[in-house]
Amino acid sequence: MENPFALVPYISKELFCDRENETQTLLEYLLNGSNVTLISPRRYGKTGLIYRIFDEIKHQKIDVSTCLVDIYASENLEDFIKIFSEAVIASLEKKKSIKSFFQFLGGLRPMLSYNALTGNPELTMTYLSDHEKQQTLASIFDFIEKQGQKTIIAIDEFQQIRNYGTNMEALLRSYIQPLKNVQFIFCGSKKHLMTEMFTDARSPFYESTRCLYLEKINREVYADFIIRMFGKGKKIISMDALDFILDWTKTHTFYTQSLCNHVFLKSGRKIEKEDVLRSAFQILKENEQTFIQWRDLLTTNQWNYLKAIAKEQAVTQPYASHFLQKYNIGTSANSQRLLETLIDKELILANSTIEGVSYSVYNVFLSRWLENQ
To answer: Which residues pair with 210 in a beta bridge?
Structure first.
């Protein structure tokens, strides 16, 4: 059978692990008129959750249009408009609607083509001024609002808009606030930025949404899912092998799926811990050149600091003398500087809980590789 451990965000409800409470909560918020802020580290499964929600809307035959806009690769307002427009076009089912969309854009004369490999729409626009860009963005929101149908728009990696310019948040807020037929999911992976954008009284988006923080999937729930998915392929996994998978991947969604995918591919009917160890070793070997390239982009001190965090697995006191001395880091000020730099590069994850903040290597496979260096 086809490998049930998907490496893409979403295929079907049957191959999607849990998130039932989050799905229900988000649907309730959105269908009752609230915008939502969804925050989680990258690769925890928030994009998959968005697709799961969209799929549930379709399954329940709720008369709501859906659109996902991933702006991770955007650097400015022009990029945002292009990506947003392409996502809107992709969500339109009728050529008549696409023609109407272009009419809303006025005299810009955009050129529409389709990618030969993916079939996705690609838009080319030429602007004369920033004012034209702002007018175009306003026209897109106006078009969606006037379709006569409720619409849910999910904007992934929303914190990217902070790179566009000082007034971008205020501009977007001014376009979004009057909309009555459109609800938004603002997704982001940089917790400190997203939290600031929606909870700081000085921010234009202050208290404009319901906030939801996506945590790791419960270990027991994930264990049941893994057993069931292997069972679909008529495979049986031992408890030792299962525990190793969840420990080694730290129940981080992407890395758990990746390891299980590899084990499913390479194993026989009965899966033991040794089978999982072989897959884990092979995954690290396949990624080794990428890890070495990352090392070459860092200073020696940054790399050694990253290695220290990996060897500790999680650090709660990065300025404590025992940690500084054990890894020859130097002063607490030096530790703070290195920590902030690596968090900014998304190589270290700061995880805040009621107990405090713990720091770990963002990429679980990199962390496991560094532990052995």
So the answer is: 36
